[in-house]
Recover the amino acids of this structure.
């Protein structure tokens, strides 16, 4: 069997692989890149527009990024980090629009105000403290706050319609929030890569084996899911950007760094409204607080969405439990992921997260009217007949060992890389696609360190002007960069 040799093998046709492929191609156009996708087209799992919230996660509206500590103080460090990381994505997209590698911005990103909305005395006090702390920092200095029903009626008319005028409520707003169609973004990135001579896309192919050679290269066997035939690729570097499928592939690699990791799959559903009159009356992403016991990814929100150019409203997500790691995966995925080195952490998580288990069971058992009841907390006038249930994507939350060797459930993303830099995998979910640029830069820093120091750094700074600097610490730099990105990407509204 002939072996095809490449410099980089990208496993998965989602936003992470597309972003890494784009960056590497820009840094060194001579690199031979191959992207492998198990489905018959790219961006069809978690990256697809209908399979995620489409929120440009910047910490503007997501209350789970600013938790309260045991003393009742709101902590903002994670929100600052996520905001700065999203700015990196905005910079990269701005550069790619400028070079023609991406089309006009409204093909993949649209201005959508980001609003946090709460009710009840305790929640209002929380939101007020959150606003006070965030707005004092230059990253969030444009955040507005109000408890005035008349003001809030202007911000979100559907949410305020038929609401008790005596109800204690509050909201914050950032006008230049965004709705991102990550599916369109990814398809455009891949379309540009396909024009490059050094790039190859293999659809309907999946990885069956990974084995590292003595010379450090990886021998990767692929199976053509259409013909059943196999082929082998030898790659100097392998990136596992397969979403929920990344964990099983990481385990196949056998690298020591993969030991102890497990996965907790969570499915999602949305209520979708395409009724034109209703859709036109809401123009924002309105996020609330998660229910007790709910995973952070289940924070309820009522969203304006523009997917493939078509506007709609989405509410949810409603979570559920599944044993699949991918939407088009197998019910055996969870069982097959159990290893001797991760059995104990996975059992720990199962036993110590009963609130989460009860929450997921409750979500699965809900009727349409149960879901509508949740929606009416955000849109009191919602009519059942205008909303339909749609499946979202699969998310595999990270299970890992803590300092005591016990199991810990993580609600974030984590980069796992081989010590020699020959292989890397991205695990986890939110904020996911929104911080793809920063995550893939970290892959380059860890796995292409020598090349980065020998010329790539200047090219990277041209693509991402803030690279090597801190947007959290440098208000003047942020001001210059944000002015350019918001203007170029059309995110400034009157």
């Amino acid at each position: 069997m002939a072996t095809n040799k490449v410099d980089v093998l990208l496993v998965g046709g989602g936003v992470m692989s597309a972003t890494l492929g784009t960056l590497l191609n820009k840094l060194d156009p001579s690199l031979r890149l191959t992207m492998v996708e198990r489905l018959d087209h790219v961006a069809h799992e978690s990256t697809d527009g209908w399979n995620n919230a489409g929120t440009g996660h910047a910490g503007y509206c997501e209350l789970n990024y600013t938790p309260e500590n045991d003393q009742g103080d709101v902590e903002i460090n994670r929100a600052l980090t996520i905001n700065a990381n999203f700015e990196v994505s905005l910079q990269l997209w701005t550069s790619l629009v400028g070079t023609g590698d991406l089309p006009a911005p409204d093909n993949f990103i649209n201005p959508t105000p980001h609003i946090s909305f709460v009710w009840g005395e305790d929640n209002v006090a929380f939101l007020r403290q959150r606003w006070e702390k965030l707005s004092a920092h230059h990253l969030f200095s444009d955040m507005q706050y109000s408890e005035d029903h008349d003001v809030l009626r202007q911000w979100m008319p559907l949410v305020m319609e038929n609401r008790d005028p005596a109800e204690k409520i509050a909201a914050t707003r950032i006008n230049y929030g965004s709705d991102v169609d990550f599916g369109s973004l990814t398809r455009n990135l891949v379309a540009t890569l396909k024009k490059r001579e050094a790039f190859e896309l293999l659809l309907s192919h999946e990885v069956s084996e990974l084995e590292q050679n003595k010379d450090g290269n990886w021998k990767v066997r692929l199976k053509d899911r259409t013909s059943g035939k196999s082929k082998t690729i030898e790659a100097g570097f392998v990136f596992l950007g397969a979403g929920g499928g990344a964990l099983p592939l990481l385990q196949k690699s056998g690298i020591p760094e993969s030991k102890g990791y497990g996965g907790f799959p969570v499915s999602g559903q949305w209520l979708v409204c395409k009724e034109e009159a209703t859709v036109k009356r809401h123009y924002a992403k309105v996020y609330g607080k998660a229910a007790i016991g709910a995973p952070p990814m289940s924070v309820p929100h009522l969203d304006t969405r523009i997917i493939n150019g078509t506007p709609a409203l989405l509410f949810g997500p409603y979570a559920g439990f599944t044993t699949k790691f991918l939407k088009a995966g197998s019910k055996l995925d969870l069982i097959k992921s159990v290893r001797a080195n991760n059995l104990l952490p996975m059992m720990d998580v199962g036993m110590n997260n009963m609130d989460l288990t009860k929450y997921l069971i409750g979500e699965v058992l809900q009727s349409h009217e149960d879901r509508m009841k949740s929606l009416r907390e955000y849109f009191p006038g919602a009519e059942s007949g205008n909303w339909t249930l749609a499946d979202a994507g699969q998310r595999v939350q990270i299970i890992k060992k803590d300092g005591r060797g016990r199991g810990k459930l993580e609600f974030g993303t984590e980069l796992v890389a081989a010590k020699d830099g020959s292989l890397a995998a991205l695990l986890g979910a939110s904020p996911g696609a929104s911080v793809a640029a920063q995550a893939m830069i970290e892959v380059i820093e860890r796995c292409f360190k020598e090349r980065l120091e020998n010329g790539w750094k200047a090219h990277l700074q041209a693509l991402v002007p803030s690279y090597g600097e801190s947007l959290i610490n440098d208000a003047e730099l942020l001001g210059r960069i944000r002015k350019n990105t918001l203007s170029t990407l059309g995110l400034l509204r009157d």
Observations:
- The first strand starts at residue 3 and ends at 11.
